[in-house]
Amino acid sequence: MKCERCSKPVTHHITDIDKNGDWQEHHLCHDHAQTFLEESTEAEEKPKKDVSELAKAFINQSSKAGAAAEAATEKRICPVCKMTFQEFRNSGRLGCPNDYVVFREELMPLLENIHDETRHCGKTPHRAPRDTQTLTSLIQLRNDLKRAIAAEDYELAARVRDQIKELESRKSVT
Prior knowledge:
The protein is mostly helical. The protein folds into 3 domains: about 1-75, no CATH class; about 75-120, no CATH class; about 130-174. It has 7 helices and 2 strands. The chain has helices at about 30-45, 45-75, 85-90, 100, 105-115, 130-150, 155-174; strands at about 10-15, 25-30. The chain has a two-stranded antiparallel sheet. Helix 1 runs antiparallel to helix 2 and helix 6 (about 130-150) runs antiparallel to helix 7.
């Protein structure tokens, strides 16, 4: 989510309630949140100024904690491709599969936000075998079939073809 006043990411959600009880939500970056609170403090009387000062103190404290967490993230570098999380944020592309492990904490909320899920549940081909043993057997039989055809041993090729069909049909039944 972007700040109401600029294109920076939102870090503060402020609910402003007026004297009539009407409320308005503001989604602001750190800088604009401070400016907003300063403007509201100047426009209001002293008792509300204390609350506004508490809000400012909270924002300053949370920004220090956020800066410390961001600094820790920046120090983390993928040992394989030497990419930092900031480089990923700038480019939008990871450097290698190991980055998913290294930057897991930062990527999980991002992926969940984008895809509404953190686990891939894509489609698989209907003919694809379920277990690796069947897959290995099919690969081996197909190679045997190619060799039998190349050697012009058509009787063996027919038997191998029938074995392949048998494995594929057995797999689709279960």
